[in-house]
Amino acid sequence: MIPLSLASAALAAGGQLADGAEPDRLISGPLVFDSRAVTPGSLFCCLGGRSVDGHDFAAQAVAAGAVAVLATHPVGAPAIVVPDVLEAMGRIAARVASEFTGTVIGLTGSAGKTSTKDLLKSILELDGLVVATPRSFNNEIGFPVTVSRVEASSRYLLLEMGARGLGHIDRLCDITRPTISTVLGVGSAHIGEFGSREVTAQAKAEIVRALPTHGTAVLNGDDPLVSAMAGDTDATVITFGFGDHCDIRAEQVGVQHDGRPHFVLVHGEDRRRIELRVHGRHNVLNALAAAATAIAAGIPTDRIAQGLRQAEISSGGRMEVTTRGDGVTVINDAFNASPESVLAALTALGDIAGPTRRKVAVLGEMAELGDEAADWHDQVAQHVVRLGPAAVIGMGSSHIDRMLATITAAGLTVSKAPDGVPLIAEISRVLRPGDVVLVKGANSLGLEAVARELAALPTA
Q1: What is the pLDDT at residue 190?
Q2: Are 41 and 65 in contact (CB under 8 A)?
Q3: What is the pTM of this model?
Q4: What CA–CA distance (Å, rounded) separates 209 from 227?
Q5: What's the CA gap between 416 and 423, in Å, rounded?
Q6: H or E stretch including 32?
């Protein structure tokens, strides 16, 4: 963190020092809201939760090294007392960001944000110190925490920006405005909350409208709702995609026998063959977005190619592929499940299994799809039928029942996770040595933990 005195933090947050908080004492560590994550010099933020209240852990946080806590009332430990802790976190993060002299990059889209962030981080790290959003800390809580981690020596601040409604990204951009904004695509994620793709596009466009005139918008040129955002800014516009009209594009896209994609990266007259270490042909688009964003940041093409070739998806639950001792390959793509990402994961299952290995699909119900839920589950069912896995295991309620009925009617072997029986046992029952199994579903179903346990099972 760029050091900030408690007095300066209190002024930025509109709060008052209490219980012995020393005005000149420096906050040298980041904002934290989990007392277990406190490090010396950090500022502990007493957020309220469904079952716990951060105020109850204030003394513990200070004992662990926090300089003070951010609280709504005195807690018997050095504190900055504010009317609203979450709002104060944003204000303090904005004060830290105002001292940052490096490049701020904002990244949004309905799917692929975290994978693209990991790919881009691999490139940018070849050029300097990068502070990037951990996992998916891209909302009003995680965003200021990430911003607070920036240091004076950092060259890049790489920020995911998530949204579940209009104005959400605007509020994040009030904390720190990007000079490069990248929009991956407008899909069906959270469409039940947005209401339509057009409204989703309006929300995503907020990241583009926040750009200064000297900034750069990096837009998916193959998505009409995204490419139209060029009209929302006076900044420079760079497009990426597969069409000839895109400034940065992929040609000769293919997949190796293990499901890792390769392609030729084209930028003007420059052509580079890229073999990705990550799995899934859908990651080619994410790689193009990362490359285009790096170009906007002034990174040379040879360094971009190097970064892409060595990049891995470090955020768990996203095309995390593990092969056990019995030859079973587990594809853990269970962090979340938009319809487009489910279809992409199923395609990856087919690519990784190839023509000889048995395929098993463990699919959870997709959430937050509103009136489109039934149609999307039908589309997934049809894709599963075309893929032809040896077994399908479903988890969820009415929509998963409808999907499994369609798959069953096509003659495939189907089961639903039974009540009272561990899902691991049901999956293990159908697996054979050498199989490839995909685990995918809404985050609320907890399938990521199932996939991790499945990948770590001891073998006979």
Answers
A1: 61
A2: yes
A3: 0.91
A4: 13
A5: 10
A6: strand 31-32
Q: What is the CATH number of the domain that holds 333?
A: 3.90.190.20
pLDDT score for 417? 83
Total structural domains within the chain: 3
- Phi, psi (5° rounding) for residue 193? -90, -40
Among 37-51, 91-105, 263-277, 360-374, where is mean pLDDT lowest? 360-374
Find out whether 125 and 153 touch, Cβ atoms under 8 Å. no
Residue 194 is predicted with a pLDDT of 65
Q: For tokens 């760029």, what's the residue?
A: 2
3-state DSSP call for residue 62? helix
- Out of 310, 334, 369, pick the residue that ends a domain: 310
| The token pair that represents 134 in the structure block | 């951990």
- Does 363 score more than 70 pLDDT? yes
Indicate the SS3 state at residue 391: strand
353 and 381 fall within a common domain: yes
Q: Are residues 114 and 263 in the same domain?
A: yes
The token duo for 377 is 């589950």
The angle formed by the CA atoms of residues 287, 291 and 296, to the nearest 5 degrees, is 150
Same domain, 152 and 267: yes
Q: How many whole angstroms separate alpha carbon 327 and alpha carbon 23?
A: 60
With b for 16 or more beta-carbon neighbours within 10 A and e for fewer, the 366-392 pattern comes to: bbbbeebbeebbebbbebbbebebbbb
Q: Pull the structure tokens for residue 271.
A: 């052509």
* HEC-encoded secondary structure of 267-278: ECCEEEEEECCC
| Domain membership flag for residue 213 | yes
Point out the domain boundary residue: 52, 83, 114: 83
pLDDT band at 431 (very low <50, low <70, confident <90, very high): very high
Residue 169: its H or E element:
helix 168-175
Residue ranges making up the domain that contains 239: 100-310
